[in-house]
Amino acid sequence: MDKTLHIVGGGMAGSEAAWQAARLGVDVVIHEMRPKVETFAHRTGNLAEMVCSNSFRSDDHEQNAVGLLHWEMRQAGSLIMTTAGEHRLPAGGALAVDRDPFSEAVTAKLLALPNVSVSEEEVTELPSDGHWIFATGPLTSGALGKALQQQTGAEALAFFDAIAPIVYFDTIDMDTAWLQSRYDKGETEEEQKAYINCPMTKEQYEGFVDALLAAEKTEFHEGETAGYFDGCLPIEVMAERGRETLRHGPMKPIGLTNPHNPEQKAYAVVQLRRDNALGTLYNIVGFQTKMKYGAQTEVFRRIPGLENASFARLGGIHRNTFLNSPTLLDAQMRLRARPNLRFAGQITGVEGYVESASMGLLAGRMAAAEILGHELPAVPQDSAHGALIHHITGGAEAKTFQPMNVNFGLFRPLEGLRGGRRGRKDRYKGYTDRAKSVWQEWLAAQEVPA
């Protein structure tokens, strides 16, 4: 069998898998159909292009599961995490990046490796031989999706990912809005002022909800269903669940004080997060939408401070395909019926940039070990990586399987620690301490580059 590793898809998972395998000495070909074959959401042909958001979410590796995943990936020499650190933007304790320079840097680093090449041809069939990782993400092409359906004997599951709009900073009224991270979180003034906040009175909030509910929405194509992932709900779908839903979700006013009117508490607050290093673009946090473009500009300009806003990008919606991994994949992320094929990233049923890249990290190392004839130790279940891979390859209920972010609910319980909200801080620290220990042991046992 050819010892070349073929990776289909050059997103977060595919890029990370290629990096890990190539640095272990394996020849890698990345098959990325862009820019020859375009998708609804992508704008460039760069690898690791960020589509929905520019945030990798919390960087707190002691009290947050995704922050722990960041830490573990850095320990493993992650391309995605290293490059994210080099292009970091202020985000009040979160890890947000300047998206275009980030993807350009990931592309340059991979192409600088002598054993990595990129093929721009679309892969439409499942190869019968060779070593392959499919990391095609939420926008798996129709032809490849049909091939997967034929192989698995089941309908591919699908939900919809919605994209938030981006606003030009110089069109935001800063006499109404103000800069502040929630609870002034962050170690520097820049971090503590990483978000733009637009306040609403009760009357303005009620009018905004009414406009959302009345706005014209994108129609679904025949055969599509609206099975949304709860972590990425369109703003209008949240509004349909109850008039107060938004005020307790992305528009919650807690932890914020309006310096223009410090005595008056906002009834709701819309936040915008910096989207590029220049600070010229801000995305509306949590405002993924399936409203039509004309309706978006009308509705979003009802937000105080955005009355004259210009949009660099309006929101959108696209289909997101994923496997029923608990029934289809083994512990090595291989398709049980075709063990020469591995899967990684969002197509496996993880949700989020970080989770996708982390599954690419594991798939790349697993494939490299197999090609090189090495035995890779089992991924420790008590690590963040282990908790995720265990969930998607057997820990989840197959009948109700849905995409999952990393969270402490996936971790095995720790004995002797208090449950409930009051014991949460000690419990989370216990999870992260245990995870770091077993992860470092796992890496040390492999004797590979960090």
Molecular structure report:
α1 (12-23) packs parallel to α11 and α2 packs parallel to α13 (424-446). A six-stranded mixed sheet has the order 6-2-1-7-17-16, with helices on one face. 48% of the residues are buried. It has helices at residues 12-23, 65-75, 79-86, 99-111, 142-152, 189-192, 202-214, 235-240, 293-300, 325-328, 353-372, 384-395, 424-446; strands at 5-8, 28-31, 55-58, 88-89, 94-97, 116-119, 131-134, 157-163, 166-168, 178-179, 195-200, 268-274, 281-284, 311-313, 316-322, 334-335, 338-343. The radius of gyration is 22 Å and the shape is globular. β1, α1 (12-23) and β2 (28-31) form a beta-alpha-beta unit. It folds into two domains: 5-156 and 323-446, FAD/NAD(P)-binding domain, CATH 3.50.50.60; 162-319, Elongation Factor Tu (Ef-tu), domain 3. With 450 residues, the chain is of the alpha+beta class. It holds the Pfam family GIDA.
Please describe the topology of this protein.
Blueprint: E1 5-8, H1 12-23, E2 28-31, E3 55-58, H2 65-75, H3 79-86, E4 88-89, E5 94-97, H4 99-111, E6 116-119, E7 131-134, H5 142-152, E8 157-163, E9 166-168, E10 178-179, H6 189-192, E11 195-200, H7 202-214, H8 235-240, E12 268-274, E13 281-284, H9 293-300, E14 311-313, E15 316-322, H10 325-328, E16 334-335, E17 338-343, H11 353-372, H12 384-395, H13 424-446
Parallel strand pairs: 1-2, 1-7, 2-6, 7-17
Antiparallel strand pairs: 3-5, 4-5, 8-15, 9-13, 9-14, 10-11, 11-12, 12-13, 16-17
Helix pairs in contact: 1-11, 2-11, 2-13, 3-4
- As laid out across the biggest beta sheet, the strand order is 6-2-1-7-17-16
User: Helical region count?
Assistant: 13
**Helix percentage range:** 25-40%
Strand content: 15-25%
Instruction: Count the E strands.
Output: 17
Q: Tell me what the CATH architecture of the largest domain is.
A: 3-Layer(bba) Sandwich
> Could you tell me how far the N terminus lies from the C terminus, measured between alpha carbons in angstroms?
28 Å
Shape: globular
H/E order of the elements? EHEEHHEEHEEHEEEHEHHEEHEEHEEHHH
Which stretches are poorly predicted, pLDDT < 50 over at least 5 residues? none
Mean pLDDT: 89
Q: The CATH topology of the largest domain, please?
A: FAD/NAD(P)-binding domain
User: How many structurally independent domains?
Assistant: 2
How would you sum up the major sheet?
6 strands, mixed
Protein name: Methylenetetrahydrofolate--tRNA-(uracil-5-)-methyltransferase TrmFO
Subcellular location: Cytoplasm
Family: Belongs to the MnmG family. TrmFO subfamily.
Keywords: Cytoplasm, FAD, Flavoprotein, Methyltransferase, NAD, NADP, Transferase, tRNA processing
